[in-house]
Write a structure and sequence with these properties.
Blueprint: E1 10-12, E2 16-17, E3 22-26, E4 33-38, E5 42-44, E6 50-51, E7 60-68, E8 71-79, E9 81-82, E10 90-92, E11 96-97, E12 102-106, E13 113-118, E14 122-124, E15 130-131, E16 140-148, E17 151-152, E18 156-160, E19 162-163, E20 171-173, E21 183-187, E22 194-199, E23 203-205, E24 211-212, E25 221-229, E26 232-233, E27 237-241
Parallel strand pairs: 2-9, 11-19
Antiparallel strand pairs: 1-3, 3-6, 4-5, 4-7, 7-8, 10-12, 12-15, 13-14, 13-16, 16-17, 16-18, 20-21, 21-24, 22-23, 22-25, 25-26, 25-27
């Protein structure tokens, strides 16, 4: 006499996210064979089968039939496969100068929450976070994911460089000078830098050591110079010019 097995209880690790593994379970029955069927033609003779790299097409009802001899009994379970959001596109305003703000940007992925991580223990749930007063310790790779329900996207990253501003050059001149003479302005050398001078009577120059011929009284006053490396500008340095 063959004993009809008790009604099996099918179960799974549902819900799962796209790309994860669906695990199907049924309690063991002594001497039994097992047959699982389900979506997309799924048909396998295992007690506890798995479906790797799940897609939304794998969602649906799975039925297990437990057979002992000529007797069998079946049970079904619904499996949910949630959509995994696309990875956002990560970007930033890099390179930035020390003391400036780092602006991180993630493209919009509808309905999702964001999680940023990065150097110096940085984390944020904002889509587009800002880090004020950047230091060299903030240089590095920032990564972001988008989460929809329980499903998290692949990670996207952007590299941020925090550049050091050059030291202020030392400004000097040949002051005092006589009217009609030449004003000679001098800035100390900062390796790799360009220069930006401003001063009275609308004076500007990008020369390290500019000269102003035929000095007039309107040229008297304070001249200021900064050193520029890349996008970073030093503090200004000044020199006072007197026209006799």
């Amino acid at each position: 006499i063959t004993t009809i097995p008790d009604e099996p209880v099918a179960s799974s690790n549902s819900p799962v996210c796209e790309g994860e593994t669906i695990n199907l379970f049924v309690e063991p029955v002594s001497g039994a064979t097992y047959r699982w069927t389900g979506p997309t033609g799924f048909d396998i003779g295992e007690q506890n089968p798995s479906i790797v790299n799940a897609t939304t097409s794998n969602a649906g009802a799975y039925t297990v039939t437990v057979s002992v001899g000529t007797c069998s009994s079946s049970s079904s379970i619904d499996v949910i496969v949630n959509e995994t959001p696309d990875a956002p596109v990560a970007s930033s305003n890099s390179p930035v100068c020390e003391g400036s703000a780092i602006e991180l940007t993630a493209s919009t992925v509808s309905g999702t929450n964001y999680e940023w991580t990065g150097p110096d223990g940085f984390s944020s749930n904002a889509q587009n976070p800002t880090i004020a007063n950047a230091t060299a310790a903030k240089s590095g790779t920032y990564s972001v994911t988008a989460t929809l329900g329980s499903c998290t996207s692949a990670q996207a990253s952007t590299d941020v460089t925090v550049a050091t501003a050059p030291s202020a050059p030392t400004a000097s001149s040949n002051s005092p000078v006589c009217e009609g003479s030449t004003i000679n302005l001098t800035a100390s050398t900062i390796s790799g830098a360009s220069y930006n001078w401003t001063g009275p009577d609308g004076f500007t120059s990008m020369t390290q050591n500019p000269s102003i011929p035929n000095a007039t009284a309107a040229k008297a006053g304070t001249y200021s110079v900064t050193a520029v490396i890349g996008s970073c500008t030093s503090d200004p340095s000044t020199t006072n010019v007197t026209i006799s």
